[in-house]
Amino acid sequence: MNKNIKLIGDGLVKNNPTFVLLLGMCPTLATTTSAINGMSMGLATLFVLVLSNMAISAISPLVPDKVHIPVYIVVIATFVTLLQFLMQAFTPAMYETLGLFIPLIVVNCIVLGRAEAFANKNGVIASACDGLGVGLGFTLALTVLGLVRELLGSGSAFGFNLIGGHDGMLAFVMAPGAFICLGYLLVLFNKIFKR
Amino acid sequence: MAAKSTLPNMVLCLGVTCLLCSAILGVAYAVTEKPIREAAAAKTSRSIGEVLPAFTSVEEITDGDVTYFKAMADDALVGYAIRSTVSGFGGPLTLLVGITADGKVYNTTVLSHSETPGLGAKCTSDQKFMAQWKGLDPSVATLSVKKDGGSIDAITASTITSRAYTQAVANALDTFRSINAPEPVSTEPGISIDLSGDGTVAPIIINSGV
Amino acid sequence: MEYFLIIISAIFVNNIVLAQFLGICPFLGVSNKLSTATGMSLAVCFVITLATLVTYLLNMYLLVPLKIEFLQTIAFILVIAALVQMVEIVLKKVSPSLYQALGIFLPLITTNCAVLGVAITVVTKEFAFVPGGTLNLAQALVYAVATALGYGLAMVIFAGIREQLALNDVPKAFKGVPIALISVGILALAFMGFSGIV
């Protein structure tokens, strides 16, 4: 049991997909125009990550080595499409906001990376915990980046306006702000955790 | 640990995975299809509700490239909600423009846009900009922004978006006219009514909008 | 005229890396040297064009008539993965020199979201400057090539910047990816000047 809790903790800090492994940059930069958007993208990825990790760890003994990548991709794509259906049905507005980046979870290197590095060697429960940890780490990173960009760019946090009728620094909600904010967050993370 | 990588094994494995996954998705699609359609329909009818007065039934009509909704209250025509797409600052800007039967704009709403956040994107939140479309009478107003000599107040620092928005409304009005134009406009003598009461017959001017 | 607009929009205004955030991982990964950056750009250009052609036809003649558009994601990614494999095999046989130049980049391309991103974009997105809103096959191909050129442009410019950056003394915490990201941000700021011209 302790081992599983440790797996979740590892995903959050030690193996944090964004700040340490530098994976999944595209959705990280594109969808973090606000804290809510970043968090939704993180949770969407978490959903796919946990389910695909579990499914892949269950079927991996049956899959011949040479075709394992295509098989994993098909499994991941299935869960992504499932997620698309659910979001279209129950959160259509968020589905529209995140747009292209929901189907693109298929090619998010985090998902295939965890399948390759962890799920095909470990049990279903451990893989689920690993998926949960890494997914939460990704969600955390996206929420923080989204929050910073929202604070600087539109002067609000989670949709609550903090600066009244004034405008924020618009560049931060646009493309350049994404790169610059992530760059500085990485510097901060390096300073704190890497010495 | 893994099964042997012989050709039959590999083909079988890939084939079974693909079949199984397609089957799962087929079932999932059948289950979620109804909620997805309902969600889309709810969004459309909410948008139509925003741009037109109360109605009881609505009919979607597609005519070539234009899509519009004809809203009826019982048997009377309430108006049309016309979808209009133009090129904005950052990409396509799609509006739904509600036009009542008398040819006035009732209200407008943005269906989708990719304008700059905080600048052009204000066309969905700027109260002053949005309010000026309510009840706009095209026979009185000139449909272009003030900078171009029209009567529309542009959003500050977003003239291109404002121009595009204005163009989209103008296009919708054109569509409205072409919807109305083919209907025979009665101008035959005999329906003229004595309005002034002094015996002279003034013909009713029907604004066919041409 | 619309071809011209498609090209300008895809290369400069909506640059795939600097405005649409697609293909960032290889963009950061192989932009250390100008020569590898050029090789990667060529490989991406090749695969994006081919993948767009195949997925566009697949969508139009198989998925839409059978009303199974919901399998789009899964079908597209399988086609792209198979295509990359095939390109690799064919290239090895037909042109070993080209294979040597592009070969090492090909396996990386399957998980390059730019390829899947463009394939999905051309069949779903509405373009205001194209009559009817959706791209036809020729326009889709032009869009794909132009997007890939935009990718190459961003990649080559950035590789040039990075080669200069490597010669500078950067604070320890900024070394590597952080300073690279901040530089891309400034480059993206420059590309914002193109917005609104289409």
Describe, in plain words, how this protein is organized in 3D:
The complex is a heterotrimer of chains A (195), B (210) and C (198). By secondary structure, chain A is an all-alpha fold. Chain A has helices at residues 2-12, 25-30, 35-59, 68-90, 92-98, 109-119, 124-154, 175-193, and strands at 156-157, 160-161. Chain A has a two-stranded antiparallel ribbon. The two termini of chain A are 31 Å apart. Chain B has a domain at 48-179. In chain B, a hairpin with a 2-residue loop joins strand 2 and strand 3 (76-87). Chain B has three helices and five strands. Chain B has a five-stranded antiparallel sheet. Chain B is an alpha+beta fold. The longest helix of chain C has 30 residues, at 34-63. The termini of chain C are close together. Helix content of chain C is 70%, strand content 0%. Chain C is mostly helical. The mean pLDDT of chain C is 86. The chains are: A mainly alpha (195), B alpha+beta (210), C mainly alpha (198). Chains in contact: A-B, A-C, B-C. The A-B interface holds A 33, 59-68, 70-71, 74-75, 77-78, 81-82, 85-86, 88-90, 92, 96, 153-154, 167-168, 170, 173-174 and B 1-6, 9-10, 13-14, 17-18, 21, 24-25, 28-29, 32, 35-36, 39-40, 43, 112, 116-119.
Q: Could you name the ranges of chain B where pLDDT drops below 50 across 5 or more consecutive residues?
A: 184-210
Arithmetic mean of pLDDT of chain B: 80
Quaternary structure state of the chains depicted: heterotrimer
Low-confidence stretches of chain C: none
N-to-C order of helices and strands of chain B: HEEEEEHH
Strand content of chain C: under 5%
Cα-atom radius of gyration of chain C: 18 Å
Number of strands of chain C: 0
User: How confident overall, as mean pLDDT of chain C?
Assistant: 86
- Helix and strand content put the structural class of chain C at mainly alpha
Global geometry of chain B? elongated
Strand content of chain B: 15-25%
The helix tally of chain C amounts to 9
Helix content estimate of chain B: 25-40%
Main β sheet profile of chain B: 5 strands, antiparallel
Distance between the termini of chain C: 11 Å
